[in-house]
Amino acid sequence: MSAVSHELRTPLTTLRMHAEMLQEGLVAPERLPVFYDDLAHESVRLSRLVENVLAVAQLEEGRRVLQLRPGDLAAQIRDIVDDQARHVERRGFPPVELALPDEPVTVRSDPQAVEQILVNLLDNALKYAADARAAGLRVELAALADQAILRVQDRGPGIPEADRDRVFDRFYRVARERDAHTPGTGLGLALVRELARGHGGDAVAAARPGGGAELQVRFPLASAAVRPT
Ligand code: ADP
């Protein structure tokens, strides 16, 4: 509760102060674009945070049952990355490099959950790899014999080996000097893993070859005889 409340306070304070300054005409016209940008950024952050908290609570209370239907995971991923393009650009990153198979990748998935998974992974990459933004982000989907693997890669500091499992625990954050002021609750990856497991798959963290973080989400292919756990 305190981790979440603390995180709610910062965007709310920014929103309130910005709104009051606009109301009182205290913002010079040339600074307006920056103000509007901050307002948009903080409201997106706030709604995503609230969505994550609600999603974790709903799963925990058994109020959310994933609606798994066969569909093309590659097409879903392309749409989500397209939807996030402006957000990525606003954070000063080049367009996401997308590597998808030519053939459809049929997976029994809940599109809303897939979106929550990918948006959380992209948000983390934008947040933790901000210093390496020039290197951009890469999203890859590979179809193997019985599973599809989604990889989200950045060139940031990566996740130390000792923390690679624990980052999926609720509220766990890597203790790093450089991230001391990076906002976050430690709920994002816990949600990603729970949603992946709800598909009968899993989520893991790896080191990206050449440096950076690689987050993998595995989904059983619809044709494979894998039962959801
Ligand atoms: P939050 O970002 O809110 O702290 P998450 O559950 O999404 O929580 O992530 C847990 C922790 O994993 C983060 O605090 C961060 O230390 C680490 N982490 C996640 N993604 C990355 C990444 N792409 N690069 C480096 N560290 C990461």
UniProtKB/TrEMBL annotation:
Keywords: ATP-binding, Kinase, Nucleotide-binding, Phosphoprotein, Transferase, Two-component regulatory system. InterPro entries: BphY/WalK/GraS-like, HATPase_C_sf, HATPase_dom, His_kinase_dom, HisK_dim/P_dom, HisK_dim/P_sf, Sig_transdc_His_kin-like_C. It comes from Nannocystis pusilla. It catalyses: ATP + protein L-histidine = ADP + protein N-phospho-L-histidine. PANTHER family: SENSOR HISTIDINE KINASE GLRK, TWO-COMPONENT HISTIDINE KINASE. Signal peptide: none annotated. GO terms for biological process: osmosensory signaling via phosphorelay pathway. The keyword Amino-acid biosynthesis does not apply. It is an enzyme of class 2 (transferase). One of its GO terms (molecular function) is protein kinase activator activity. Residues 3-223 form the Histidine kinase domain. SUPFAM superfamilies: ATPase domain of HSP90 chaperone/DNA topoisomerase II/histidine kinase, Homodimeric domain of signal transducing histidine kinase. The keyword Endoplasmic reticulum does not apply. This is histidine kinase. Its EC number is 2.7.13.3.
